Automatic annotation (TrEMBL):
This protein's UniProt keywords: Acyltransferase, Lipid metabolism, Membrane, Transferase
SMART domains in the cross-refs: PlsC (SM00563)
Name by which UniProt lists this protein: Tafazzin family protein
Domain Phospholipid/glycerol acyltransferase: 54-178
Stretches that traverse the bilayer: none
Cross-referenced SUPFAM superfamilies: Glycerol-3-phosphate (1)-acyltransferase
InterPro entries reported in the protein's UniProt record: Plipid/glycerol_acylTrfase, Tafazzin
Protein origin, superkingdom: Eukaryota
Protein family: Belongs to the taffazin family.
Alphabetical list of Pfam families matching this protein: Acyltransferase (PF01553)
The organism of origin for this protein: Datura stramonium (Jimsonweed)
Cell compartment(s), UniProt: Membrane
Length: 277
């Protein structure tokens, strides 16, 4: 049911249109949204080289980050073909048959928390990248509404970057304000029943990241030669037969680069937000 041709593609178009309308209302009618460097994101979504996948990575401030962060003016939020795929928590978005159908049609891929980077649906995400699609991830792995440095990232995003047949374009994004639109502890420790209004949402898009995977792989092999850490559960049939220690080194290095870039962008975004006030 997550296929593009399910019932002629009509359910997906309807869901993407409805969700886009909701996101547009929250971002631009109920609240005020401003974007820095949004054209870079739009261009990569619309006209990146054929067959080259795109991975966007961002901080995770609320359950509304996706789809509302794509609803800024000028973004093709109603185009089902251009719409992102996104990794979504199975225990939140796929609780029952109805929710599962809705989110699958809406191009969400269920991820089991604690299921590891080689769980079944990560292979589905890899298939989408192989198709040259756009995938969004929240590499911190959970919502954090504090004004705090980017936390240690989960390795799932790094593994997808390393395993994709064509190295994806990786675009970092930092946003502020969603924690006020959908606070986690609004009343009695619960979220509000509807998005709040009269808030300011700021979205700062960075520049594409480049990863020299052959060089990173060689470095991982070198660093892992003296390591004996192994669970015996990681496959050796990927990445040219890298053992588990080398895979861990590679994913850690990629994740650290993404985290550093996101943190630098977060620091820049603070000056951007202040300048807009």
């Amino acid at each position: 049911m997550g296929r593009a041709n399910h019932l002629g593609g009509l359910p997906r178009k309807l869901v993407i249109t409805a969700v886009g309308a909701f996101g547009n209302a929250v971002a631009n009618l109920l609240n005020t949204t401003t974007v820095h460097n949004g054209d870079t994101l739009i261009q990569l979504v619309r006209s990146r080289p054929a067959g080259v996948p795109l991975i966007t990575v961002s901080n995770h401030m609320s359950t509304l980050d996706d789809p509302v962060m794509w609803a800024f003016k000028g973004f093709p939020i109603f185009d089902a073909k251009l719409a992102r795929w996104v990794l979504a928590a199975e225990d939140i978005c796929f609780k029952n048959t109805v929710l599962s159908y809705f989110f699958r049609i809406g191009k969400c891929i269920p991820i089991t928390r604690g299921g590891g980077i080689y769980q079944e649906h990560m292979n589905e995400a890899l298939d989408r990248l192989t198709d040259g699609a756009w995938l969004h991830t929240f590499p911190e792995g959970k919502v954090c509404q504090e004004d705090a440095p980017i936390r240690r990232l989960k390795w799932g995003t790094a593994s997808l970057i390393a395993r994709a047949p064509v190295t994806p374009i990786v675009l970092p994004i930092i946003h502020h304000g969603f924690e006020k639109v959908m606070p986690e502890n609004y009343a009695f420790g619960r979220r509000p029943p509807v998005p709040l209004w009269n808030q300011e949402i700021k979205i700062v898009v960075g520049e594409p990241m480049e990863f020299n995977l052959p060089a990173l792989t060689e470095m991982a092999l070198s660093q892992s030669r003296d390591s004996s850490s192994s669970s015996g559960q990681w496959p050796r049939t990927i990445l040219g037969g890298l053992n588990e220690a080398a895979q861990r080194c590679l994913y850690m290095t990629i994740s650290d680069q993404i985290r550093t870039t996101l943190e630098n962008l977060r620091n820049f975004s603070k000056s951007y937000v202040k300048a807009e006030q």
